[in-house]
Write a structure and sequence with these properties.
Layout: E1 17-25, E2 32-40, H1 44-49
Antiparallel strand pairs: 1-2
Length: about 50
C-alpha cells in the first residue's frame, strides 16, 4: 500500500521560509551547478540580488 508523503514545511511556522535555488557557473570549468537554500521570506529578494 502506498504511503502518504507529509511535507513538514506545510505546518505551522514552516510557511515563513522559501526554498531558493540559484544556478551558479563555475569560473574554472564553465559548468553550471545548483545551490539550494531555505531562506526566510523577508530576505529572499536580498539573497537573489547578490
Amino acid at each position: 500500500m502506498a504511503k502518504k508523503a507529509v511535507a513538514s514545511l506545510q505546518t505551522g511556522s514552516g510557511r515563513e521560509f522559501t526554498k531558493v535555488i540559484k544556478m551558479i557557473k563555475s569560473p574554472k570549468s564553465g559548468a553550471y551547478s545548483f545551490k539550494e537554500e531555505m531562506i526566510h521570506n523577508d530576505k529572499v529578494k536580498d539573497h537573489i540580488s547578490k
